[in-house]
Amino acid sequence: MKKLYLFLALLTGFTITAAGQLYYATVIETEPNDSPAMANTFLLSDTGTGFLNYGIEEDYWKITVPGDGQLSVLFRSAIAPTRCYLLDTIGFYIIDTHVGWNETVNGDGLAQGTYYLNFKKETSPDTARYYFTPTFTLAPLPNDMEPNGNPALASILPLNDSTTGHCNYFYNNQKDTFDWHKVTLYEDGQLSCTIMPTDGKYINMYIYDGDGITLLANGYTNSTLTLNADGLAAGDYYVVSNAYYATDFLSYTLKDTLILPVIANDTIPNDIAVNPSSLPVGGTVTGHIGYRNNGNVDAVDFWPVHVMEDGKLSWTITSGNGQDVYALLLDGDGTTVLAGNYTTTTATYSKDGLAPGTYYIKIYTYYSNEFAPYELSCSLLTPVQANDTGSNDTTASPSILPLNGSSTGHI
Question: E-strand spans in 186-273?
Answer without folding.
Answer: 189-197, 203-208, 215-221, 225-232, 235-243, 250-259
